[in-house]
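REQUEST FORM: STRUCTURE PREDICTION
Request ID: SP-0412
Submitted by: Lab K.M.
Chain count: 1
Length (residues): 268
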Amino acid sequence: MSASTVMDLPTGVINSADTIRRVFDAAVINPIVNHPAVRPWVAAIPHGDIDLTDALADERNVLLMIDGGGIFFAQLFPGIYEAHTQFLPSVRGPAAMSATREAIHWMFTRTDAMEILTKVPQHNRAADLWARASGGTLDFERADAWQTEAGLVSVRYYALRYADWVRKAAGLVEKGAWFHDHLEAEKTRIGSRNAVHGDDPAHDRHVGAAVEMIMAGQVIKGVSLYNRWAAFAGYVPIGVVSFDPLTIDIGEALIRITGATFEVLPCQ
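STATUS: Completed
RESULT:
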């Protein structure tokens, strides 16, 4: 069998979270959480230091960081996470917003996340704008639900769900286009006569999301979410043939995925 073709991935698409890192050591985040400019906004209790050691010992929770801050995602239920942002004043602004969007991308493509939730106290207008700019929508509001030194204030509850995120997320269309270009190159390599896939940005977007999930190890999630979209859009569903090696039937071809690339098998 001839060697499979190799095509470079689009910059910043696969492994798109290239400036953030997952951290398991609370010693990295605790000084930021307890910084005088950060601590009053982190939790409803007005006094005492916060220690995330026990929270990070539970690997269902995820801390994603850049230098100077990060986002802690606490798993409330499987697939549902509450996000807590903690950035020092020196990195607030474009760098922190970019990290936030990358962290959300990371969570939706590299974990079981289907909903990301966050609470915003009424008096934190910057956080309210941040939640909206990150893609969140206001679910509901509660009065007197956040304790401050001046008394209780109301809280807004925001949610970002996968279906809303995938419609606008950066890089997915490009990743889907890369997949289709590589697929056609592979089909040419093995002499496949299956039809060339027509250009469809909507399809590219959902293929791109599925490919990112599958290549990141979220195989069942990627396949299931793609099939849910495909059933409505009129595309053929895909299915896992084997997990080791990871082989997927996409209808027009059988592909074997290795790391961040794949080859078409000459059996279809």
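NOTES: The chain has nine helices and eleven strands.
Reviewed by: T.R.
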